[in-house]
Write a structure and sequence with these properties.
Largest sheet: 8 strands, parallel, barrel
Shape: globular
Structural class: alpha/beta
Mean pLDDT: 93
Bound molecules: dihydroflavine-adenine dinucleotide
Radius of gyration: 18 Å
Length: about 300
């Protein structure tokens, strides 16, 4: 993880910076590039457009680390509504959830029950639920809850972060359960004991996990990156595979590459975030790319 990323992630916790991003026109303009809108209808409209371009979607109702179960309940209802709408509209997509948004750090039993309800609703709608991976305080609980729910319902997926030192073991444990496994680099600041540091070693870990993931026939690999070298490696490994796999990319990131992958005949799913609680998500997008932060700072001080 670069120094730039660490500085942006630390700065983002400052209330003055948070206000400068969430309450100003430049902050909202930046959010607009990466977030489909404030509500479910905006997300559905973006999803329809993406489906029209031959892309699958995963709807993400923004929110994380809720501190009370009433807020978690609202998120659960929001996700149930999204699943209903996927079924009603015939949009080709699923949902991506965060367990801390469903109360994991307040009451693990509540989060587990919420996950079960979503899995059942998704089965009824002939779709699936992907569990995002959050920071390493929650990795073990997330993996454990996924394992139990996937064994019971069979229509789940999970994100594994290449930078975590524990991920090779998690992959061996989870891939045989079927489902879909999203491999990403990892977006949080983590200590050296927990995660590989620096671009080269994270990329090497990703490449090695990618090769192993593509060797499992039981699961559907989802290769979540915008990194051209890793996309090319996935294509080479995927060509040797007979079972389905897909690329995944974030809404608004490298849209021309997204179109290129589809026109080359690849399956591609776009992660579509929506909702008003976009600040933590936007922070991670700013932290992983200096150009996004520079765009915001220049707009804020009135320079092109
Ligand atoms: P890298 O950061 O090296 O970027 C490669 C290139 O992509 C850059 O050079 C730039 O051109 C472009 N790019 C990347 N990020 C950009 C941005 N923000 N704005 C504009 N251009 C950008 N993480 C996590 O910890 N838990 C999770 O559950 C998920 N889920 C997830 C789902 C999906 C579908 C994706 C694509 C990613 C995630 N991530 C995630 C985020 C992931 O861990 C990682 O932080 C980002 O994808 C950036 O890493 P890249 O692999 O794209 O490479």
């Amino acid at each position: 993880m670069s120094l730039f990323t660490r500085v942006v992630m630390a700065g983002a916790r400052n209330p003055v910076i948070s206000r400068a991003v969430t309450k100003t026109v430049p902050g909202r303009a930046l959010a607009h590039l990466f977030v489909a809108g404030d509500d479910l209808p905006s997300a559905l409209s973006a999803a329809e457009t993406l489906n029209g371009k031959g892309m699958l979607v995963s709807l993400d109702l923004l929110g994380e680390e809720v501190h009370d179960l009433a807020t978690a309940e609202v998120a659960l209802d929001g996700y149930l509504a999204a699943i209903d709408e996927l079924a009603r509209t015939g949009i080709d997509g699923n949902v991506s959830i965060k367990l801390t948004q469903l109360g994991l750090s307040v009451d693990r039993g509540f989060a587990q029950a919420a996950l079960d309800r979503l899995a059942v609703a998704a089965l009824g709608a002939a779709t699936t639920v992907t569990i995002d991976m959050e920071d390493s305080r929650f990795t073990k609980a997330t993996v454990d809850l996924y394992e139990a729910a996937q064994k019971q319902h069979g229509n789940l997926g999970i994100c594994l972060q290449a930078y975590l030192r524990r991920t090779p073991a998690d992959l061996e444990r989870l891939a045989p359960l079927g489902g879909h496994i999203r491999l990403c680099k990892g977006a949080y600041v983590e200590p050296d004991a927990v995660a590989h540091q620096g671009t080269a070693s994270v990329d090497a870990a990703f490449a090695s996990l990618l090769e192993r993931l593509m060797s499992f026939a039981e699961c559907r690999p989802a290769i979540a990156t915008h990194d051209s070298d890793l996309i090319e490696l996935a294509s080479r490994l995927g060509d040797k595979r007979t079972e389905p796999w897909e690329y995944q990319m974030l809404y608004g990131v490298r849209p021309q590459l997204q179109e290129q992958l589809v026109s080359d005949g690849h399956a591609l799913r776009i992660y579509v975030p929506y909702g008003s609680d976009w600040y933590p998500y936007l922070t991670r997008r700013m932290a992983e790319r200096p150009a996004n932060t520079i765009f915001f700072v220049r707009a804020l001080i009135g320079r092109k």
